[in-house]
Amino acid sequence: MNNPYLDSQDGKWKPHPLSPSETQPQYVHHLVPKPDPLPPPEISHSIPNHKTVKQRCVKFTVAAVISLLLLLLVAGVLLGYYLSSPCARGLLCGDGSCVWESQWCDGVKDCPAGQDESNCVRLHGSSFLLQIYSSHSKSWKAVCSKGWTDQQGTASCHLFGYSKSTYVKSGQQTVESGGGFLIVKSDAKPGAPIMKQLVDSNTCPNNNVVTLHCIVCGSGLNSSRAPGSQLATLGSWPWHVSLQVKGSHRCGGAIITPYWIVTAAHCVVGHSDPKQWAVYAGIVDPLGPLFNPAHSLSQIVAHEGYNTLTQRNDIALLKLSTPLDFTASRNIAPVCLPNVGLNMTIPQKCWITRFSSSINGDSGSPYLTEAQVSLVDSANCNSSLVYNGRISQDMLCAREIKAGVHTCHADSGGPLVSQKDGVWWLIGDTVWGDDCTEHNKPGVYGDVTHFLSWIYHQMRVR
Predict the structure, then answer these.
(1) Handedness of CA 320, 323, 327, 333 (dihedral sign)
(2) Please, which residues bridge with residue 278 across strands?
């Protein structure tokens, strides 16, 4: 076989020019490799891919629909709450119905039981400053004394539940002008509700505003007593009463009006029949009931929220069948209910009185005794070393002033009082106290200020 690269003459290897026919590739179908797949065409940024745009549109549409459905769901829930809860658009009446906030304290009873007009007046501080809630400004405002009369004062006292017979007077005091006033309308109708007779005003002549005294209370006592527990003298605590069942002393109480006595709810549990009770006022010893009349009860009103386990809302009102006559004896008189903003700060000095069968180590028939105590911070009283969380927001704690004087045997329902600016105020009613051998256990009292609205409501409707 001839080699195209071998010279036949001298046998040396030399390149041999190829003929045109020999320059054609041989067995092309074996030598040419299989071509690679074509690369995907380049996507020009200036010419969008229609399929990708379509996918994006679909995704955007789905997201928009889902968002819309979520918004509709939220709107539906809010609308359902709005329709199912009438107080989403107003203030709650006691029966579950609701009125607009602008209807609160406007002089028109819109709630079925008149709850919207029941807590529209209050007395503030030790000066008995009259304040009325303005439905226009949604705030409490002092009442300008210009144009104010005793007729309007009596009507205002009636809103607390006091009768016309106890009304004392309307006075005046000067206050700062911030926040504005309520002032009597020039065309006010005397018989109209008091809120209808007043209008908001930015000014008041000389800033003289109304003070209101609905009853003579909390006066005539000397607070300079020895701090230790001792026998009380006749007339020294004229509001303290002995509440008796079948001739035996059961609980103490405090007179607040000729008809009403404040005591503890746990005193009347199991003895809710008014006929079982006798009330003795103006007594300090076991002979007192022999020389003083027994007063009967017409109603017993325990707080509807009273809990026998936690002792929360442990307060009750007793209504006498006939009113007490404060003019007949200087030994019988009411204590003042605490006004809003009275600001009894810790460690405010207070006094407790109780009928006790144990005094100076002796036992026998109960005598009225007195002891000075001071208010204790609720957080300390609620600590794990003291009452371990049992003290709720409607309770107060007070500890004896003199070491060795134990007040845990205080009368249930008996008054805790304090003097401020020459007036004695009913701060609490005795709820409970642990055994006297435990020196770290202060007495526990219902916070009367917490129950003011409840007390006034009961006095007003019964």
Answers:
(1) positive
(2) 244
CATH architecture of 118-213: Roll (3.10)
Q: Is the pTM for the entire model greater than 0.85?
A: no
Q: Which fold has domain 81-117?
A: Low-density Lipoprotein Receptor (4.10.400)
Burial 222-261 (b: 16+ CB within 10 A, else e): eeeeebebeebeeebbbbbbbbbbeeebbbbbbbbbbbbb
Rounded Cα–Cα distance for residues 37 and 425 (Å): 102
Active site residues: 266, 314, 412
For residue 184, the tally of other CB atoms under 10 A from its CB is: 20
Cβ atoms of 277 and 284 within 8 Å: the answer is no
The CA distance from 169 to 167, in Å, is 6
Which residue type does 456 have?
Y
Whether 274 contacts 286, CB under 8 Å: no
At residue 78 the predicted structure's pLDDT band, cuts being 50, 70 and 90, is low
Up-side HSE of residue 91: CA atoms within 13 Å toward CB?
14
DSSP for residue 87 = G
For the record, the structure tokens of 275 come out as 């006929």
Quick check: helix, strand or coil at residue 115?
Answer: helix
Least confident of 23-32, 89-98, 253-262: 23-32
Q: What single letter denotes the amino acid at residue 15?
A: P
Where, residue-wise, is CATH 2.40.10.10 in the chain?
238-320
Q: Please answer whether residues 320 and 295 qualify as being in contact, where contact means their C-beta atoms are separated by less than 8 angstroms.
A: yes
As a whole number of angstroms, the distance between CA 250 and CA 244 comes to: 5
**C-alpha–C-alpha distance, residues 294 and 392, integer Å:** 36
Contact 90, 101 (CB under 8 A): yes
pLDDT digits (tens, 9 = 90+) for 205-245: 999 999 999 999 998 665 556 666 789 999 999 999 999 99
Task: Classify residue 97 as exposed, middle or buried by CB count within 10 Å of its CB (0-12, 13-18, 19+).
Answer: middle
What span, in angstroms and rounded, lies between the C-alpha atoms of 104 and 197? 15
177: nearest Cα among 206, 139, 148: 206
What is the fold of 238-320? Answer: Thrombin, subunit H (2.40.10)
Helix boundaries (H) for 12-167: 28-31, 50-84, 150-160
Return d(Cα 243, Cα 263) in angstroms, integer.
9
Element (H, E) at 277: strand 277-281
